[in-house]
Fold TLC domain containing 3A.
Amino acid sequence: MLLTLAWGALFFPGLFALCTWALRRSRPGWSRTDCVMISTRLVSSVHAVLATGSGIVIIRSCDDVITDS
């Protein structure tokens, strides 16, 4: 479990930094604020998709979600 936490702690900030860097290089006319805002939304969207996917996996693997553990 700690390994998953460590990977998440590296993946999401790394994705944010990579997106910000790529946007600043590909769109030099955009301000830093614009690049950070788009990067934040992209990372948030990736996080939401992963959370939804894990929720679907959990729900599909349990017969009764309320009583299964």
